[in-house]
Every structure is written in C-alpha cells, then in structure tokens.
Amino acid sequence: MASLPKVSLEELTLQVDDLDLKTKAAKLFEDYGCVVVHGLNNKYVNAIGSQVTRMVEQSLLCDQAGNLSKIDEGWVAPNGTLFIPAAWDGTALEKNRNGIVKDQVERGDFAKDLNGSKAPPHAYHADGSLRDKQIMVLAMDYFTSADLLSCAMDKNTLDVVEAISGSHDIEVFGNGQLVYKEPGGHLVSFHQDASFFEFEGLGPIGTLNYCVDTNLQKNNGPLYVVPGSHKFGFIEHSDTSSHLGLPDWGIDDAICVEAPAGTALFFHQYLIHGSPPNHSVAARPNFINRYTRPQDKVIMPLATSVEMRKEALEKAKTVTPKRERGLMARGERLALASELAELGAKAKGQFH
Prior knowledge:
Elements: H1 9-12, E1 13-15, H2 21-32, E2 34-38, H3 42-64, E3 69-71, E4 74-76, E5 82-85, H4 101-107, E6 133-138, H5 146-152, H6 155-165, E7 170-172, E8 177-181, E9 188-191, E10 198-199, E11 205-210, E12 224-226, E13 238-240, E14 243-245, E15 255-256, E16 264-267, E17 272-275, E18 284-292, E19 298-300, H7 306-316, E20 328-330
Parallel strand pairs: 1-2
Antiparallel strand pairs: 2-16, 3-4, 4-5, 5-6, 6-8, 7-18, 7-20, 8-18, 9-17, 10-19, 11-16, 11-18, 12-15, 12-17, 13-14
C-alpha cells in the first residue's frame, strides 16, 4: 500500500468567498480525496438545527411507546429514524460500542441494564425509563426538510461538485442523510463509503456538513479523515458496532476536522474517515448530501454488512445492478437509448 501524503487541516481548508474556490477545491480533492469549505452552509444550519430538535423529540416518543421495528441495521421508528444499541458514557451500556451491531440486533445480545452504574439525564425517557437504544440516523431527508433540500441544491456547493467531477450534469444520490450523535453516544468506525455503495468512475461525491461547532475542546465526536487514502481504492471491511468498518485504521492515521457550524467537507467514495463517540453534553448532528455523474455505473448498490456486500457483488456477476434515479441538481440525465432499460427506480433513500 502506498504511503500517505503529509498535509495539514489548514492546507485542506478553503473559505466560501475565495474567488478561486472551484479551482482550488478540485485540486485538493484530486490530491487528497477531500477538501473543507468554511461558511458554505451558514444560511441553512439554524433552520436545520431547529428541525433536528423536533424530529428527535418525535423519534424518542416512538421509542418510549415501544413503536420500533427491528431491521438488520438496528431498529427503525415509523418516521424512519434508525436506532442502534445505546452506549452511554460511564455506564454498563458503554461496552455496546465493542459489539457488532448486526449480531446485537439479531440476537438481542447487548447490554440493556445499568448494573449499578449511573446514567446521564439524556439516557432516560420522559417517563423515567432507561433508554437501551439511541439514535444513529435521524429521519430527516429531502422529503421532510425543505432546508435540507435547499442546501443540497446550493449554487456554491454545486459549483464545487461540478469542478471536482468535471461534469455539468449532477445527480443527487439518495435523499440526504442526517447522522445524529447523541451525548455519550456511538462512534463511527473508520470506513470508506464505497463499502456501503460503490460506483465506477468517480463515484458519489459526499458533503458532510457540520450543524454545530465541532472540535476537540468540545470533545463532541469530530470527524477524522485520512487524506490521500482515496488512492488506495477499495479496502475490504469488517462488521463493526457502526456497521461496516476498518478496525485497523484509527485517529493516529488521520487529521481531525475541527470546524465551526456551516462547514462542509467534500469527500471521495474511497476516502477513509470516521469519528469517535460524542463525549460532550450536547448532541452533534451532521447532515450528508451526495452527488454522482449520471453516467457512472453501479458496482455494488447497497450493503450494511460483510455478508450483504458479498451477496450483492455475487449477484452483480449475473444481473447488472441498476442505479436508483435521483433528482437532477444541475444539467440533465440523457441516457443512450440502449441504456434506458438499465435505469432503476426513483430513489427511496437509505440508512447507510
């Protein structure tokens, strides 16, 4: 495996009002697989933050009422919020971070009791009962939040995506995603997004967007990235407590993305990244938008476990995967007549 380049967070960071933003961003993305842009989402984060608060309240009421359904990835509320086993700091439940979520859910074999440890206030429902599940992905997407959709369609964002991809035709991949780290909550194992969905060509370009100031001083689970790791191509993953991950990679290999609310990180499908638990007293929500070129073909459409990815790749040998059709954020989707039959259904969204 090739050695990694030496680069600092300051060297990866641009300002939204930089007159040469597009050119600089494209070059950084090519060299390092990521670029940070301060101020890109300043006009959206307050409204999105307020919506997050209301959606969390609704989701927790669903959990309190026992109205969650078990799926391979965890438990899902009727509104679409995904829960995984709770891992509250300083409690007996903390050991759930060391388990494999797929097995924990399937067998129900995870810590659910305090066993004499003391839990923080947010670990309890309004009725006083202990929460043995916590939110991982909140049910906010382009169907529930106009501000999230407006952010995804932001001109400055699309200008950067166009510069990176070299294509005026930009398709939104998925329906947006909001990763919600509760106080004392879960970690996100280091991983490549391509473990969950992989495309030929450039693949999905992601933007991970900070809703709140996120840094080491707050200790609220900031993102770590491994610049240059996108050039390794795909690396085989393992099942972890946050679904697919790379257990051999950690913060010693990475740069911490400390940044204010409104910051966006553009990242490659093969960039290795992850984040530690949120050890602060406040939640740390991030929202993610992803973009593809309409011509990029699917290698592996969707997986959340090693077994699921293996099955999807095996099926792809005989049945060509169809990519879901997302919204066109810029330009058009004009497939060749011979390829029209290969177009999949309209995007339904995903938990990955």
